[in-house]
Amino acid sequence: MPELRFNVLTQEWVIMATERAKRPMEFAQSIPIYNLPRYEPKCPFCPGNEWATSEELFRIDGEDGWQTRVVKNKYPALDEHAQPTVSGDFLQTSINGFGLHEVIIDTPRHDCTITMLSLEDVEKVVLTYRSRYRAVAEDPRVKHIIIFKNNGISAGSSIIHPHSQLIATPIVSNQIDGRTRVTRTYYEENHRCIMCDMLERELSQGQRIVYENEHFACFLPYAALSSFHTWIFPKRHAPVFGDVRDNEIPALAEILAYVLRAQEKLLGRPDYNFVFRSAPVGCDHHLYHWYISIVPRLSKTAGFEIGSNIYINPSLPELNAMELRNVVDVLRGHV
Ligand SMILES: [Zn+2]
Ligand SMILES: [Zn+2]
């Protein structure tokens, strides 16, 4: 019998269509033949072609040149020079298009995805994210910062060279606004962070846990919106990703790397997105708990989802979690 589950944080209903449950093999995508060169002369993100990118904002040096590099997006979705002033009226409101749009080049290697990087190099990627988050949060025009990766064509990526992005906006999206309303109401009633409580529940039940280390836990949400929709939560309450501490960075790199590697091994290099979700800049400390959402692009959103905002998940999160957990164990050499 199908079951409807409610995702309390996102306030979305999900139909767990268990009789349609699919095994990972059925999701497995045909692995594209990766025959990429280590260096591609025409690629703007390859070392030696730095002239082809916009202004550099940050870099971490590597053994031979740079290891990570951050540049302004050459084709930004928003304009960094605009002053965010509101105009119009209730029926037609607009703000001129201020925003920051940065590209984070994960590695100098053209042929090396984040799943192929050493844990030390993933740490450098995460440190680069944090450095940019903190720098951008200083801009008084910025209200919200999203760091994300689009991996693969169906996840929206247009450049092969491994990279991530940061977009800062002068507004808080309806989605984050809705979530902070949920967290505020819960806090007022319970004097606790709803996400700390969700994490505590997941850790005590264990069945949706994929992996945990000293500072982070990875699990599939109780009402996961889609197959292998995965969350990584910091164990220490903190509202924004920029709060992550130096001593937590290795644990963050480790959990992110193993979860992405496990997903790739189990599902055959699916296209995917991950998003670092944070509170609005300057939000009350207790109101939000930053986390990472990982969404492999295994199925397309269809008319029912668009029409209802109710999702159909063809596989149980408990089952998906067990499968990912087993692969993480194998990858970490624990089996
Ligand atoms: Zn390249
Ligand atoms: Zn919390």
Helix % is: 25-40%
- List the ligand species: zinc ion
Outline the low-pLDDT stretches. none
Rg, Cα atoms, Å: 20 Å
Account of the protein in words:
The chain has seven helices and 15 strands. The protein has a single domain, classed as HIT-like (HIT family, subunit A), CATH 3.30.428.10. The model has no long low-confidence stretch (mean pLDDT 90). The strands form three sheets. The protein has a ten-stranded antiparallel beta sheet, with helices on both faces. Helix 2 (119-137) packs across helix 5 (249-267) and helix 5 (249-267) crosses helix 7 (317-331). The chain has 335 residues and is α+β, with helices and mostly antiparallel strands. It binds zinc ion (2 copies). One zinc ion (ZN) binds next to loops. The site of one zinc ion has 6 residues, from loops.
Tell me the layout of helices and strands.
Layout: E1 3-7, E2 12-16, H1 24-27, E3 56-62, E4 65-72, E5 86-88, E6 93-95, E7 100-105, H2 119-137, E8 144-151, E9 163-169, H3 174-190, H4 194-205, E10 209-212, E11 216-219, E12 230-234, H5 249-267, E13 272-277, E14 291-296, H6 303-308, E15 311-313, H7 317-331
Helix pairs in contact: 2-5, 5-7
The site of one zinc ion has 6 residues, from loops.
